[in-house]
Automatic annotation (TrEMBL):
InterPro entries: DUF38/FTH_CAE_spp, F-box-like_dom_sf, F-box_dom, FB224. Signal peptide: none annotated. This is Protein CBG04959. Coiled coil: none annotated. Pfam families: F-box, FTH.
Length: 339
């Protein structure tokens, strides 16, 4: 009796093409011949896994790697890789890998998932804080092997949003280049709410040179940003940035940029210090002063119903576009041509 694997290749390709992602993974586990046939197929002949979100996390305290994949129907697939026992847990089923490094097992699984992912992700999230892991743990090498994976599959991940948690400078550069710049819309570098530390710093120079940075529309960063240049951030429609200080000339440049933009929404800067109040007053004229802040309002080119509000407080500066009706009573709105 003939085996199904002996069927003509084009027939098997049709079967796989009409199957869903989970069916093909199941088929791949049937025997070595099926696994080799599927692994040798071009990515274009594989079905779309059609995931909405992916999370890749390493857990120091548990010496564990966790992958989570969510589809558009709300189903979440969670896979845990434990250094203790060299094991993988998927849907309550454990498998021991006696002769394999568990990080290599996780990377192989992720490579397979990425081969099936054709549609654009809403979000991909990395929390692989290996610079705080002990070097004698195999998980220490996870981020390096992730970056090597990107090179090996020779394609970028299409995702609208990239979230990086507690990553160092090197990790940010690696993971940002994981993504397709044509798909990326939002970059977020963040820490836990109870773990934001001013000593965590990132230099923005090299990151700002990447196509992913230049194409993105939104940026949020909980860490101290060093070497901030207004020309590197003026293309964002919304941003939240923590930095030591910002110059009055950069604020003037941003103001001129934003009043010429029909898409800008807000820019929030949390500062350690700001010494440019006198220069700003010379540039923008007298502020409308409240108990807590100094305020300026400017018309926006080609927008009749909205204004740019700039608010300066002791340790933050906020640029915000809103409707005329929210202008403080008694405040002056400067004409576009005055600016």
């Amino acid at each position: 009796m003939s085996s199904i694997i002996e069927m003509p290749e084009f027939v098997l390709e049709k079967i796989i093409g009409f199957s869903n992602f989970k069916d093909v993974l199941t088929l791949r586990q049937v025997c070595r011949d099926f696994r080799n046939f599927i692994d040798d197929l071009k990515d274009s002949k594989l079905p779309d896994s059609n995931f909405k979100e992916m999370e890749i996390v390493s857990k120091k305290d548990e010496n564990k790697i966790v992958f989570a994949f969510a589809d558009f129907g709300g189903t979440i697939y969670r896979i845990e890789y434990s250094e203790f026992g060299n094991s993988r847990n998927f849907q309550e089923t454990w498998k021991i890998f006696e002769n394999s490094n568990i990080v290599d097992v996780a990377i192989r699984d992720l490579e397979l998932v990425l081969r099936f992912q054709k549609s654009k992700l809403y979000r991909i999230y990395f929390d692989v804080n290996d610079f705080q892991l002990s070097p004698d743990s195999s998980i220490y090498k996870l981020s390096v092997k992730l970056s090597n994976l990107c090179i090996r599959i020779n394609r970028k991940i299409k995702t609208e949003q990239l979230y990086l948690k507690k990553c160092n400078q090197s990790q940010i550069m690696k993971f940002i280049q994981f993504t397709d710049p044509e798909a990326l819309e939002k970059l977020s570098f963040f820490a836990d709410d109870d773990d934001i530390d001013d000593r965590i710093e990132i230099e923005i120079d090299d990151i700002a040179k990447t196509e992913q940075w230049k194409k993105a529309e939104e940026f949020k960063c909980d860490f101290q940003v060093l070497n901030l240049d207004a020309r590197d951030i003026c293309h964002f429609t919304s941003m939240s940035i923590k930095t030591h200080s910002i110059s009055a000339s950069d604020l003037e440049f941003l103001k001129k940029t934003f009043i010429n933009s029909s898409t800008f929404v807000y820019a929030f800067f949390e500062l350690t210090i700001f010494n440019g109040n006198e220069i700003i007053s010379n540039l923008w004229g007298p502020a409308f002063i409240t108990e807590l802040s100094r305020n300026w309002y400017f018309r926006i080119k080609d927008l009749e119903d909205e204004v740019l509000h700039i608010e300066i407080r002791q340790n933050f500066i906020n640029f915000h576009v809103f409707e005329w009706r929210y202008v403080l009573t008694g405040a002056r709105v400067q004409d576009y041509n005055e600016s």
